[in-house]
Amino acid sequence: MNDERAPRWQKWLLMPEVRAWEAVALSLNIEPERINTDRYAWMGAAHPFDEGEEFNDRLAVLLANFTNRAFFPTPCVISMQAPYKCGVRLCEFVQFAISHANWHLPAKLIDSNPISKQTAASAEIPLPTEVSHAALDTVASMALGAQACPDKFTLYWLNGKVDEDAVFAAEALAVLERMRGQQPKALHETTTAASAAGALVNAWLVNRDLPSYMRGRAIDDFAALKVEPLNCNLSEASEILEGSIEVYRDDVVKLLERERMTVPSFLQCVAPAEAGQPSAEVAELVTKTRTDETSQQSGSRIHRTRSRRHALGHVIDKAKQDASEPDNYLSVWPELVRLAESTPPPAPLIGYVDGEGVKYRTSGPNPDAEVKAFTKDALRKQMDPNAR
Asked: Assuming Cys at both sites, which of 51, 80, 86, 183 could form a disulfide with 55, CB separation 3.0 to 4.6 Å?
């Protein structure tokens, strides 16, 4: 292994949650921030990484299993457009890699977690209830201390964030490649993966796709802006200008969705329902999970299929958001079909067949997974459990 690409364990071992692709990189003793990417990968590709067959296989296995709560009980960030960006608890990933996938892992990754170390030694899977409770307490405490996402921020802050995100840069380069057909100047011959993120943001501003503001007033022509004082050097002028320009988060997110780019984690902010109180979703999750555990410990049998969410749950939620009447299945169904027919459709959707319904895979992006159909009548029953 090249020492230049060795993981910075002093950082990663302190990260309780990582993205799926980062976990796989660490399992192969690769520093995620030094991972190779394919600059020619289009948005329809499974992922933008170029690390060979072993990396691809591990990522495919992880994505096919990460929704299984027996392996990954802690709820983490979900990315429907790019599953490889979904979050996993690092300790749960290590245990899955050892006990289920039987992967060889770096010693530092195994030694970082006592449960994982014990699993590697005994080939057993000890999952004490305390681990699950601790995870739920973490989720609840994070919600209690959650900060409302800022409605707006400076261009300087945005450029700094996107430049730090290697995956965002790879996707931005692919978008600029597509834009070059209509706008030859969108992708300069000197643009690289390292500069693509800032170049895409700049293209949005120059084309007036991303509204920008200075001192509370809208900027009509971003390209014509000049900075004062005029006696500063170019680098200082750029920082002063970027620090004076503000953009709104919602405008940035809309552009990312338009280009079918995944919203980065630093823009995926969820404000609590009330200050000092967890959101309703988190409160419901904690209460429900603990109730289920109590019932199991008292000897009650719980039918798993009743407590398990449908595989299309997140996609249906998106369809409801886009529907004019989110509580009416007749209004939600066309939006669900539209998502299935989009290019590429959000996982696990794979398309729509007239007369059969929305088609999806039962195990995420795994090409060998079973393909099922979800009908309009199934949606009706899904939205109204009492319907017949």
From this structure: 51
